[in-house]
Write a structure and sequence with these properties.
Pfam families: NAD_binding_10 (PF13460). This protein is of the alpha/beta class. Helix content is 30%, strand content 13%. The chain is built from eleven helices and 14 strands. The strands form four sheets. A seven-stranded parallel beta sheet has the order 6-5-4-7-8-9-13, with helices on both faces. A three-stranded antiparallel beta sheet has the order 1-2-3, with no helix packed on it. A two-stranded parallel ribbon has the order 10-12. The longest helix is centred in the middle third of the chain and has 18 residues. Bound molecules: NADP nicotinamide-adenine-dinucleotide phosphate. The site of NADP nicotinamide-adenine-dinucleotide phosphate (NAP) has 22 residues, from helix 2.
Length: 373
């Protein structure tokens, strides 16, 4: 028996998972030196099997849908924890039969979290909220919830954990979201040794709350005279960066993923207005106190309308932390390359096919990647 195991040992060995329970899964059976899972079959794609099993908490959100799609297309089995039956339906056809496994969960229920991560070799935590609700304030999601997921994941013997935070996470921030994101990072790193912390900039894409919101509610982006600076990043680039981590060795550190350029809200409003052929907004610039009062009132009918913390965030420039894109093997793209795909729907019928017009970009910083659009 030993002989038959040792003969091809230079090519094929069983790598034991280094974890608390000595648990082993499909992906532990690897060929050396490539470390490719033996169970992997077929060329990469929808019907391939990569041997990896990945849990994506927060899969039903904006970033989650693109990450699940990218993982499934690599032939990875994805566990998708969900709260609302209808919120996960679009994820099911993203992978081949049996590759997308939905499991109901509650962020307060440790047993359900343990069930969701039981067979996985990487767990992603994308759970986050940009407004507080009646049941969940910022801390219960970004701090307690994140720590609980990280701790249960570690106790379940999963070797890798990736936590998505925010570029502006800072304990001293005046925004509750950024404050709790910073506290969450600390608690996650303490609960899961060697966790990877990802800090993306503001995301734009089809379902974003940036370009879409600017097209519908420009008045809320004119706060601070629209001079606040931001580093928007394409949701596909961040999803690809996360998906690439599956095949990379564990990066036990914080990775900032801001967009390649620093821009003002003023420029982005101009961009949306030029691309949609809508005249620039004539709405007045509201003082902060008025905006805060309106945001507080808006909480009564419906939380996501405009939260007071969002008003505070409109006055905070995005952190100038350098991007660490090389570590994740992605070159981030400029917003002008993609914006039209996401805002064309705001054009009127007669303007729908007219050429794209771009406003003049103000020079704020040196562009590290160049304007390739
Ligand atoms: N969007 C951005 O511009 C941006 C920028 C930087 C960092 N981030 C971070 O990236 C992550 C993903 O962002 P996103 O834009 O995809 O967010 P999103 O669209 O708001 O999705 C948030 C996800 O978190 C889940 N979630 C929220 N509260 C929960 C709770 N109490 N219990 C269980 N699940 C809960 C949601 O589940 P349900 O569908 O069940 O509600 C959803 O799957 C977040 O951590 C966010 O803070 C986002």
């Amino acid at each position: 028996m030993m002989g038959s195991m040792s003969a091809p040992s230079s090519l094929l060995r069983i790598q034991r998972a280094v974890n608390h329970q000595g648990k082993r899964a499909y992906h532990d059976l690897v060929t050396l030196p490539t470390k490719k899972p033996i169970v992997a079959q077929g060329p990469p794609g929808y019907s391939a099997v990569s041997g990896h099993v990945v849990t994506v908490f927060g899969c039903t959100g904006f970033l989650g849908r693109y990450l699940v799609s990218k993982l499934a297309r690599m032939g990875t089995q994805v566990i998708i924890p969900y709260r609302d039956e209808d919120e996960k339906r679009h994820l099911k056809p993203m992978g081949d039969l049996g590759q997308i496994v939905a499991m109901e969960w509650d962020i307060r229920n440790e047993n359900q979290i343990a069930e969701c991560v039981r067979h996985s070799d990487i767990v992603f935590n994308l759970v986050g909220r940009d407004y507080a609700t009646k049941n969940f304030d910022f801390a219960s999601v970004h701090v307690d919830g994140a720590e609980r997921i990280a701790r249960v994941t570690a106790q379940s013997g999963v070797p890798r954990f990736v936590h998505v935070s925010h570029l502006n996470a800072s304990a001293s921030s005046s925004s509750k979201l950024y404050q709790t994101k910073a506290e969450g990072e600390e608690r996650v790193t303490a609960a899961f040794e060697g966790a990877t912390i990802i800090r993306p900039g503001p995301l734009y894409g089809y379902e974003d709350k940036l370009l879409n919101n600017m097209a519908i509610w420009p008045i809320w982006w004119k706060l601070n005279n629209a001079k606040t600076t931001t580093r928007p990043v394409h949701v596909m680039d961040v999803a690809q960066a996360l998906a690439n981590l599956v095949h990379n060795p564990q990066l036990a550190r914080t990775i900032a993923l801001p967009g390649p350029s620093t821009l003002t809200y003023e420029y982005l409003l101009d961009l949306v207005s030029s691309l949609t052929y809508q005249p620039p907004s004539r709405a007045p610039v509201l003082p902060k106190t008025v905006a805060l009062a309106v945001a507080k009132l808006a909480q009564a009918p419906w939380w996501p309308l405009l939260s007071p913390d969002e008003v505070v965030r409109r006055y905070i420039d995005d952190a100038d932390t350098p991007g660490d894109w090389d570590a994740v093997g992605v070159t981030p793209s400029e917003i002008e390359q993609h914006a039209i795909q996401y805002v064309r729907r705001y054009r009127s019928a007669e303007n729908f096919s007219r050429p794209n017009v771009f406003p003049q970009r103000p020079i704020l910083t040196e562009e590290p990647y160049g304007l390739g659009f």
